[in-house]
Amino acid sequence: MTVLIDKAKCIGCGACTVECPVEALDLVDGLAVVDAKKCNDLGKCLTVCPTDALSLPNQPAKPKGKLDPEAGAKLNLKDPLPESVKDYATGNEKKTIRAQVAPVAGGDVWSGVWVIIEYTNGKIAPVSWELLGEGRKLADAIGCGLSGVITGHMVDSVIPEAFAYGAEKVYVIDHPVLKDYRTEPYAEAMVSLITKYQPEIILMGATSVGRDVFPAVATKMQTGLTADCTVLGIDPETKLLLQTRPAFGGNIMATIMCRTSRPQMSTVRPRVMEMPERVDGREGELIREEFNSNESDFHTKVLEFIISDAKNAFLDKAEVIVSVGLGLGAKRNLVLAEELAEVLGATLAGSRGAVEAGWLTHDQQVGQSGVTVRPKVYIAIGISGAIQHLVGMETSDFIIAINNDPEASILKVANYGIVGDLFQIVPALTAEFKKRLQHGVAN
Amino acid sequence: MHFVVCLKQVPDTSEVRIDPITNTLMREGVPSIINPYDAHALEEAMRLKEKVGGKVTIVSMGPPQAKEALKKAMSYGADRAILLSDRAFGGSDSLATAYILSSALKKIHETEPIDLVFAGKEAIDGDTAQTGPGIAQRLGFAQLTYVIKVKELTDKNVTVVRKTESGRQVVQAQLPALLTVEKELNDLRYATLPNMMKAAGYEPEMWNVKSLPFDLTQMGLKGSPTSVSRIFAPPGRDGGEIMDGTKDPTGTAASVVTKIFQQNILMVNPLAKGGNLQ
Question: How close B38 comes to chain A (CA, Å)?
């Protein structure tokens, strides 16, 4: 007997090859392959396969309903394994390899949830506060503390804010070499805090800073990092972090775990987690650390920072967005969307198609390869709604879509979908909004 | 100067779907392409080579089929291409992948010192943007991500413009450095006929786990701290009200606006000149 692999279902994630105690499974050309001589029908692989691609002929299929988020991610780390199994290739007894858990050296603790508070050019990235809100939930689920981390120069004004948004402790490194954001000094400052205080989880916004510094920190710590998470959770059994992110251009969601090293690190997309309540005057423990380094230690220098004047730079923070797609037909028709945006005080954006057509710039692109937005109102004009676009905007509070194709995917996510000619409907909307807003008449 | 481009062959992700009924990946007939950001990385390396002279080496990791991507890359005028391919590399996450690639770059660096490494800002299949920085850290090279312009290149320094949410950062770094690039960095060239002919007959060098003194515990599934525990289709958002705006566009628009204000989705602020929010 041997485990059966359904090649149509296998995604080549390799979970089974790690789980197999007798190393009977391997990945060949992206698919799981079983060595029938080694397989001894333990069935460990069945429990970890995310797509039910594996089965044993004499075992009933796994119960349905596995696709609920908790069940699918269960680790079974506590399942008893036999100490040794027979290796059918050699006939010898072979020690089983247990699922690896984080190596905790003597004296190491790895406890607590940390949120890195991004403070550059005198501005705090709001995602930092969203993550303190999310970090609170994770810390409560684990039963540990929640801390904020600030690295930079002249950061004192940020400290009370971090307490106000829920940090119990705040770690600070304030040093002149951290005045401008640069990878190396920021990564080293973070690593010095992490090595000393050993948090089990560290979160940061998936901003250009977070996505630059966290890979450097993870490499220095030799640990795992999951980028662009949109859902976080704690596995109730193992207390490990469940990190869910879009993959394959947003067509698939994948839940990632970091089982073998600490800390567990994630960057999280801005505006997908809820902003927590701000409580003025809340206090906590402040820990200031020295940072022993000099300017001469670093090989980069920031010559200049040119602040973008365009609203586009803040697309991810826009409250109202008017977004256009190829349905607009030509660049000259952009004026229709601009007029509507003007009346609403909205920010103009577009789909990848509109950007590639040269109507808009790359930083105005909404979607998987552009910006994720979560405005109060998102108005989609002539956008069909490819999955890559939808993942970048479907958490908007309210979506209005105008499209001449009643089958367009965008209409399936819209609160109000208007089927019709955008060249008639958009000017009519603009005129109607203008009338109401200018007269201050709501009804 | 010696420019190295890290390049990845990826599935054209706009065509990869998950079957909503069976919850499995539908990948039949999905074409493979050079990761679009990496194409811009190669373009910039070629431009700098043409400007200051030198050599462009392409390094990739992937299954043997990825040779095709390397041959294609050679048709743009690169000088050498190396494919790291071995079953032992399979299943590597970004930490392990950066280990493997940086090991190869170290070996190249010993005989032909590297001045600049280029990579795309991220691969479109994983979107992690972690492998480039991981390589820079392991090599001890300066790390410059989200590059939209190479302003200056001298024997000692490179000056680039980086894109961030709030503006543009102009940074100078000592060489050697690693740059990860955005698409707006440059416009891609077309392959020339002589280069296409040269590439057609070119066989990329194949390196495997025995080509270098690799540490086997740092690669593959077992050398990867992260693993996928589950995949699923993205949750859908419930649709709302669909209105027919073909017969009376003005009337439909008016009724939508009325509903929006009735539900306080947008609030009227009489003090504001134009539209404003609550």
Answer: 14
